[in-house]
Amino acid sequence: QVQMVESGGGLVQPEGSLRLSCAASRSIFSIDTMGWYRQAPGKQRELVAVITRGGSTTYADSVKGRFTISSDNAKNTVNLQMNSLKPEDTAVYYCNAKSLTRDFWGQGTQVTVSS
User: Fold this and answer.
1) For residue 5, which of 96, 111, 71 has the smallest C-alpha distance?
2) Average of pLDDT values for 17-44?
3) Alpha carbon 73 to its chain's center
4) Is the pLDDT at 34 greater than 90, yes or no?
5) Backbone phi, psi, residue 88, to 5°
6) Burial zone of 48 (CB within 10 Å; 0-12 exposed, 13-18 middle, 19+ buried)
7) What percent of the chain has pLDDT over 70?
8) Can you give the pLDDT at residue 93?
9) Cα–Cα distance between 96 and 5 in angstroms, integer?
10) Closest-CA residue to 14 (of 78, 66, 70, 69)
11) Summary mean pLDDT of the chain
12) Torsion of CA 58, 54, 68, 34, to 10 degrees
C-alpha cells in the first residue's frame, strides 16, 4: 500500500544539475535504509546511493563526488542532488525505502542528460 513518489527528473545538459526528491505516500515504520536506483536502456538496475537510518552513506563509484544523498527519516523523505551530470547518467531513477521486512518503491522518474 505504501509507495514512494519521486519528482524532479527531466532533461538537462551535460555538466548540469538536477535534484530528485522522494516522499512516502504515508508513514513507514522502522526504515533501515533509503536510496536511489537507476536503470538505463539495455542495462540492469543498479544502486546509485543509499543512506542508513544513522546517516551513513554509500555511493556507486560512478557517481562519487558528483551526487549527494540526504534524507529525513521522520518525514520518510529522501533526496538526490546530482551535479556535473554526464550522458551516462541517463536512466530512470527509482526511489527505495527498506524496512526490516519490506521494500517500498517509487514509480520512477526519467533523467536525460543530453545536449
Assistant:
1) 96
2) 91
3) 15
4) yes
5) -65, -15
6) buried
7) 99
8) 98
9) 10
10) 66
11) 94
12) 80
DSSP letters spanning 11-47? EE-TT--EEEEEEESS--SSEEEEEEEEE-TTS--EE
Q: What pLDDT score was predicted for residue 21?
A: 97
- Asked if 70 and 79 count as a contact pair (C-beta separation under 8 A), the reply is yes
* Residues 6 or more apart in contact with residue 10 via CB below 8 angstroms: 18, 110, 111, 112
Residues in contact with 101: Cβ distance below 8 Å, sequence separation at least 6, in sequence order: none
The β-bridge relationship of strands 46-52 and 18-24 is unpaired
- The string of pLDDT tens digits covering residues 73-84 is 788 899 999 999
Whether the per-residue pLDDT at 91 is higher than 80: the answer is yes
Judge residue 49's burial from the number of C-beta atoms within 10 Å of its C-beta, 0-12 exposed, 13-18 middle, 19 or more buried: buried
Report residue 95 as a C-alpha cell.
526511489
